[in-house]
Amino acid sequence: MSYEGDRGGRFGEDASTDGRVTFAAVEQRLVEAMIVCWRHGDREASWLHLKSGWPEVLREIAAGDWGGAGVDGHSAAPIRPASLTRIEVAEMEEALGWLDAVSPDDRRIVGMALAQLASGKREVSWLKIMQRLGLAHGSEGLRKRYGRALTAVCHALTRRNASGSVSTG
Q: Considering 19, 61, 109, 136, which has the largest number of Cβ atoms within 10 A of its Cβ?
């Protein structure tokens, strides 16, 4: 999905022609921010597990060499995830900054819902969120609170676009 727009923002095809930001565009951008956040390493924990800057080298007795591909062509060294770019981190921080428009009580609900969407689910299980919050009933109310929270973000971004003071991208 391309977000490059005429206004310098990231809401090209998901923004209406009058500069309004849509619910789907905000939700997609926040899901992307959640995925980047998960890829972002915990620097403090990484120092505890630091061995070396070099990749792990394991001897493969069957192949008779060190660190090469094995007999079946697979390497035993674990694949490391690609590091984040500055643009990805900046976009993540910007999108998470949008949650300032959401009341503190609703941020936890928004975070749980976005985590489910970022994990690949097509729909949010409001019953699971309700159980995690320790509630006995009210899953429909949680869905409405989530919708109102993201709508508040949409309205805040639309106001920023209309004033021209802050870019969304």
A: 109
